[in-house]
Amino acid sequence: MRIGIIGTGRIGSTLARILVAADHQVVLANARGPRSLAALLAELGPAASAAYPAEAAARSEVLVLMVPFDGVQGLLPQDAVRDTVLVDATNAFDGPGNARNLGGRGSSELVAEWYPGTRIVKSLNTMHFETLAVAGTAPGPRLAHFTAGDDGKAKEIVAGIITDLGFAPVDTGPLHSGGILQQPGGPLFNRPLTEAQALAWTSH
Ligand SMILES: NC(=O)c1ccc[n+]([C@@H]2O[C@H](COP(=O)([O-])OP(=O)(O)OC[C@H]3O[C@@H](n4cnc5c(N)ncnc54)[C@H](OP(=O)(O)O)[C@@H]3O)[C@@H](O)[C@H]2O)c1
To answer: What are the extents of the domains in the chain?
Structure first.
């Protein structure tokens, strides 16, 4: 699959590395523009290319947001991501470690409002990048990555990518309730769980 990643910092570059290792193609975009990505492209080889964000969206079958939450609104033209499977891996914080008070809403619900018509799935937001880098190929029980969303087919597509990376996809339900479980302050955030442990939480 050709997967776009917007944001190539700690988590975005890590995802790019493990996607390429799993035989996917990646289209990378950041704030500084494609030329700033030369070193990462050289490391990743021919399966990786760089673009500006809207171009990355146009060239990708699935697009992953890995930028600071406050950079999401207005980042892309709405038309660039209409009907796109959009993985929101961002987290809303107010200062280090403090979950932002969103008045009972999920942060990905806000992203869905900013990008109407997008097939949004909240995923890949709970695991620290250092764990993401190695855990999919480590021996032992698979760790879980979660999917929350209101488009079942989009969640299946994201679950397939999670499986390719060596993790166990666990569906947390709709974007509202599942997203709140996954976001900072929720019980699934930043807690590496095996598939069995994750299923125990989500069946509560
Ligand atoms: N770090 C983790 O372990 C982790 C795990 C799961 C989820 N997340 C979430 O993922 C997001 C990124 O975290 P991070 O730790 O990877 O941050 P980071 O290392 O600071 O990287 C942020 C990336 O976003 C890019 N960016 C910022 N504004 C942009 C814009 N307007 N257009 C395009 N690209 C833009 C930056 O571009 P430049 O490189 O050009 O500056 C940079 O590549 C956050 O929402 C975070 O909560 C992080």
So the answer is: 2-202
> What is the tens place of the pLDDT at every residue in 26-74?
999 999 999 999 999 999 999 999 999 999 999 999 999 999 999 999 9
In the sheet with 144-149, reading across from the earlier edge strand, the strands are 48-50, 25-29, 2-6, 62-65, 85-88, 119-123, 144-149, 168-173
Q: Contact at 8 Å (CB) between 33 and 52?
A: yes
Residues within a 6 A CB radius of ligand 1: 6-12, 29-32, 36, 53, 66-69, 71, 75, 89-91, 125, 128-129
d(CA 119, CA 112): 8
Ligand 1 atom 45, closest CA: 90
pTM of the full predicted structure? 0.98
Architecture in CATH for domain 2-202: 3-Layer(aba) Sandwich (3.40)
Dist. CA 15 → ligand 1 center (Å): 12
Q: Report CA(7)–ligand 1 centroid distance (Å).
A: 5
